[in-house]
């Protein structure tokens, strides 16, 4: 029979493992990350799924756990990920972790070859014998097998060193079955960032989360509020970060967390291959994550002063800056930005954006177009400050296309411009000096008007920032050129 | 123990159901025309199957289709699709079909509510014992969301009038398992157009296919060749229709078949709502792809468009951009040209690079305001959200007449050009100062009938690399 400890409760970040540009463990960055989260958490998890344990050698995992223990130095519990596909290695690493002094071990269900549940049971029975407190770990998205409640119940009740289970499935009926069977006997942790608040409200003892690297303070608020019975506050904060954590969970969590930390000024490198920038964590996800991290209440990316050098005049503005944001931006004759947002396929948005001086090439092009073929070709000025020309990429043929383009896509573009004025990227002082050409694509088969609007908003907002910040950088292009996957490059 | 029916072999098209535009009424005349079109190349007909949109048809309509098919079939067997979610409905349909003169009933695995294996068995049992008509079982997990369990099939084949099974799963491990267990007792038909040849080689008796109303003669030939053990020739034929078959199976089903028939001059109308003729499962790009494949098969005439690759002095090829030889000289613009590839894959890239504040900057901006109808310029990207630098416009020199042709430009051409540019950046051919200070425009001439995306990518990459080398090597 397992047991319930006093210490296994609250918010535990599943720490990312920082790597240097050469791919080596970056101890300094790791210590800094731990110092960043420590004030807000009840424990930490080194070498979990988010910590890329499956891409590290056993020696590296040991080194990371040792550094973690040293930096934490007893202030909070350290639950180390010690799971491996084979029982033999899992037992050996768990024994090592026990001797190194970790508080407990998080042991993932054996993966890749898919053992049957009686084999999984015997796996955990062997790990149980190590004598270290064990937390079972269900993560079907990666492991490929989903615990049945009766296997979980069997292990939780039969094995005397099992103190809890972490369920990352997001499957609330499964979690509820666990509450029904073993609540109070062991700790039940939720590991899916999108359902933290409902799981805590339903009785979970805590959460081990990827996004707790980024927003440990907010998760602590959700946890505290739930403990105090203040469901309204807990719900408020869950909803406040819902989009942020959905991006993290569904769009390549390790890389997403790492790029989020980097944008916050905590450089932790990239994930090891085959996880890569611009992969599961797509470019557009990064833009959206950035917007979420800088949003009011989250406040993880701060504003910084930037100078716009327009040649004849200099404009000071303040923008939410990442390390990639130049502190002086010049070359306003013509700037190119591209934005892409989807799915769904039919409603995806693709924007080619030009930003430039009114009396430069972009301004002259707008005036020539409007004096010439503008009307006939469906061009439209949709805003005067800054003067914005909306151009359809494909010929508008039907009434539906016309409505989706001139009403909904245009609304999305204008919203992006408005919010870019508000957030400082398009400061008031340049609105009479610069103009925009927004060449936007709406697929002839598009139907869902709101999606057309949102996707064009996103694509335009991303394009404005990319144009101003000069992204993608040459380095990003070179890193990704070989693996880039152009969607129209292949036959059906 | 069933007796194998001698006629249950060969090629059976799963006929679409033609509808009149707007009213969505069944178009009986079009149905007759369709049957007359396919009849010489087939061994029988299948009415109101999945391709025939059976869930959208009334009982009366389904019986009417059988009546017409029997009337037109000239003695060839008609298999009536009698699929329904409920046993009662399916049995009623089978009785209607019997009355209308059908030779057999095709009964799909019950769908929507998920009956147990026992329920599935009982469904087929009630129908087989409730009507004096040969029964063909029908496995199509793509729409039913479950397989017809092999063990249930095993038991059903003990019924005297269960004579066959149509397997549309495309999962050959399932097909082989059926052949192993019941192949000696009933006829297994392949219902997945992409795997006809391997299924025939594996031992199935015939095929019920959506594509058998578009290219029945190809399947007839494949069937004959496999029968004679001439696999090499059969493979070549299967391969010649592989892409269209894939489109029919995965990217549009009956809707795509209707689009193909219409291109071939057999107007069978739109699908019933909520399906869309185009813009739903069948997207515009894929529809354009169907046309090209039909041209290749000789089903529709090829539209030849005369065109030329640009020639003459390179400095004079940028007139569309209002860039004259004098402007090039005055602003020290870089120009280069490259040609690569053979035949349909021949590509020419004429490239110009220059300062953002020169007339090229203005030309660049002007291009994005859409002045050349059918030749819209797009920013060069490695993939969406990965724009190359220096910012480069890709401008096709020939009008883009359809989305497929456009896709050749904005797919393989765009990504190959992007890759050539980033490679040139990495090698230092393009100087770092150009990244922020210059823009480029690449005029791409791609054969209007180019269709091999892989080969096209290679040609564009080679041509673009030549053009960049000429433009930047100083």
Summarize the main sheet of chain B.
8 strands, parallel
Output the CATH homologous superfamily of the largest domain in chain B. Answer: Aldolase class I
- Give the CATH topology of the largest domain in chain A: TIM Barrel
**N→C terminal distance of chain B:** 84 Å
The chain-level structural class of chain A is alpha/beta
Number of helices of chain A: 17
Shape of chain B: elongated
Report on the architecture of this protein:
The complex is a heterodimer of chains A (492) and B (474). Chain A has 492 residues and is of the alpha/beta class. Chain A is built from 17 helices and 15 strands. Chain A folds into two domains: 10-270, Aldolase class I (TIM Barrel, Alpha-Beta Barrel); 328-480, Ribosomal Protein S5, domain 2 (2-Layer Sandwich), CATH 3.30.230. Helix content of chain A is 41%, strand content 17%. Chain A is elongated, with a radius of gyration of 26 Å. An eight-stranded parallel sheet of chain B has the order 1-8-7-6-5-4-3-2, covered by helices on one side. In chain B, strands 9-10-15-14-11 form a five-stranded mixed sheet, sandwiched between helices. The model of chain B has no long low-confidence stretch (mean pLDDT 95). The N and C termini of chain B lie far apart (84 Å). With 474 residues, chain B is an alpha/beta fold. Chain B has helices at 28-38, 59-72, 87-100, 117-130, 141-144, 150-156, 172-182, 196-202, 216-227, 231-240, 242-250, 253-263, 284-296, 325-330, 359-367, 403-427, 432-437, 453-472; strands at residues 10-13, 45-47, 78-81, 104-108, 135-139, 162-167, 187-190, 206-209, 334-340, 347-355, 378-379, 381-383, 386-387, 392-396, 438-446. Chain B is elongated, with a radius of gyration of 28 Å.
């Amino acid at each position: 029979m397992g047991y319930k400890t006093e210490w296994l409760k609250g918010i535990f970040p599943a720490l990312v493992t920082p790597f240097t540009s050469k791919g080596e463990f970056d101890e300094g960055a790791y210590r800094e990350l731990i110092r960043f989260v420590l004030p807000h958490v009840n424990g930490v998890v080194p070498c979990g799924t988010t910590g890329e344990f499956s891409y590290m050698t056993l020696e590296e995992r040991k080194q990371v756990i040792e550094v973690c223990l040293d930096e934490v130095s007893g202030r909070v519990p350290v639950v180390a990920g010690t799971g491996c596909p084979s029982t033999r290695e899992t037992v050996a690493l768990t024994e090592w972790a026990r001797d190194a002094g970790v508080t407990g071990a998080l042991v993932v269900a054996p993966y890749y070859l898919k053992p049957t549940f009686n084999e999984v049971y015997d796996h955990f029975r062997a790990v149980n014998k190590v004598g270290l407190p064990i937390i079972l770990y269900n993560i079907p998205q990666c492991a490929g097998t989903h615990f049945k409640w009766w296997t979980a119940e069997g292990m939780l009740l039969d094995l005397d060193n099992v103190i809890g289970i972490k369920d990352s499935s997001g499957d609330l009926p499964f979690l509820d079955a666990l509450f029904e069977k073993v609540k109070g006997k062991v700790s039940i942790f939720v590991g899916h960032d999108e359902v933290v608040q409902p799981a805590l409200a339903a009785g979970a003892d805590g959460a081990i989360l990827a996004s707790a690297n980024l927003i440990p303070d907010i998760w602590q608020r959700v946890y505290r509020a739930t403990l105090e019975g203040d469901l309204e506050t807990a719900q408020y904060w869950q909803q406040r970060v819902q989009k942020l954590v959905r991006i993290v969970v569904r769009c390549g969590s390790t890389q997403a967390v790492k790029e989020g930390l980097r944008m916050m000024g905590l450089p932790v490198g990239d994930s090891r291959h085959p996880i890569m920038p611009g992969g599961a964590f797509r470019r557009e996800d990064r833009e959206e994550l950035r917007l979420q991290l800088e949003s009011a209440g989250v406040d993880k990316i701060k504003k910084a002063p930037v100078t716009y050098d327009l040649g004849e005049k200099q404009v000071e503005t303040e923008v939410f800056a990442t390390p990639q944001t130049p502190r002086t931006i010049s070359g306003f004759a013509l700037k190119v930005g591209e934005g892409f947002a989807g799915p769904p396929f039919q409603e995806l948005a693709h924007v080619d954006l030009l930003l430039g001086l009114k009396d430069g090439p972009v301004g002259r092009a707008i005036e020539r177009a409007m004096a010439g073929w503008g009307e006939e070709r469906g061009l439209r000025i949709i805003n005067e400050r800054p003067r914005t020309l909306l151009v359809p990429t494909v010929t508008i043929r039907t009434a539906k296309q016309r409505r989706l383009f001139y009403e909904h896509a245009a609304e999305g573009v204008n919203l992006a411009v408005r919010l870019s004025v508000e957030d400082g990227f398009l400061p008031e002082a340049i609105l009479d000096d610069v103009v925009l050409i927004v060449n936007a694509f709406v697929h002839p088969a598009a139907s869902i008007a709101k999606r057309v609007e949102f996707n064009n908003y996103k694509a335009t907002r991303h394009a404005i920032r990319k144009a101003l910040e000069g992204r993608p950088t040459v380095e990003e292009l070179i890193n990704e050129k070989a693996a880039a996957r152009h969607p129209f490059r292949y036959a059906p | 123990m069933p007796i194998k029916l001698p006629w249950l072999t060969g090629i059976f098209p799963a006929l679409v159901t033609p509808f009149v535009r707007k009213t969505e009424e069944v178009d009986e005349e079009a149905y007759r025309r369709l049957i007359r079109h396919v009849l010489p190349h087939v061994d029988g007909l299948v009415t109101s199957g999945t391709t025939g949109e059976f869930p959208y048809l009334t009982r009366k309509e389904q019986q009417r289709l059988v009546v017409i098919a029997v009337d037109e079939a000239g003695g060839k067997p008609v298999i009536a699709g009698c699929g329904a979610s409920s046993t009662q409905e399916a049995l009623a349909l089978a009785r209607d079909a019997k009355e209308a003169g059908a030779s057999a009933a095709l009964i799909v695995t019950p769908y929507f509510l998920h009956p147990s294996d026992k329920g599935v068995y009982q469904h087929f049992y009630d129908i087989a014992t409730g009507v004096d008509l040969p029964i063909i079982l029908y496995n199509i997990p793509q729409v039913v969301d479950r397989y017809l369990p092999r063990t249930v099939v095993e038991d059903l084949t003990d019924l005297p009038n269960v004579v066959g099974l149509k397997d549309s799963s495309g999962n050959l491990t399932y097909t082989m398992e059926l052949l192993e267990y019941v192949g000696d007792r009933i006829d297994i038909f392949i219902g997945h157009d992409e795997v006809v040849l391997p299924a025939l080689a594996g031992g199935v008796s015939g095929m019920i296919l959506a594509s058998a109303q578009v290219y029945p003669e190809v399947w007839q030939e494949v069937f004959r060749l496999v029968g004679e053990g001439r696999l090499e020739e059969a493979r070549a034929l299967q391969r010649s229709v592989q892409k269209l078959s894939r489109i029919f199976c995965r990217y549009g089903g009956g809707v795509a078949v209707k689009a193909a028939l219409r291109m071939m001059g057999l107007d069978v109308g739109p699908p019933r709502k909520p399906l869309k003729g185009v813009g739903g499962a069948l997207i515009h790009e894929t529809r354009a792809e169907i046309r090209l494949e039909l041209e290749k098969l000789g089903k529709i005439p090829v539209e030849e468009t005369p065109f030329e690759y640009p020639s003459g002095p390179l400095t004079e090829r940028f007139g569309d951009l209002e860039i004259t030889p004098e402007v090039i000289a005055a602003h020290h613009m870089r120009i280069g040209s490259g040609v690569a590839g053979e035949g349909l894959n021949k590509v020419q890239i004429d490239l110009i690079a220059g300062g953002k504040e020169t007339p090229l900057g203005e030309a660049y901006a002007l291009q994005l305001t859409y002045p050349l109808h059918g030749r819209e310029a797009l920013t060069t990207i490695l993939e969406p959200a990965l724009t190359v630098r220096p910012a480069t416009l890709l401008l096709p020199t020939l009008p883009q007449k359809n989305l497929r042709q456009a896709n050749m430009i904005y797919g393989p051409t765009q990504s190959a050009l992007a890759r050539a540019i980033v490679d040139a950046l990495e090698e230092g051919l393009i100087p770092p100062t150009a990244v922020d200070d210059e823009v480029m425009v690449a005029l791409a001439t791609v054969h209007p009938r180019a269709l091999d995306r892989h080969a096209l990518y290679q040609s564009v990459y080679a041509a673009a690399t030549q053009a960049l080398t000429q433009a930047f090597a100083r």
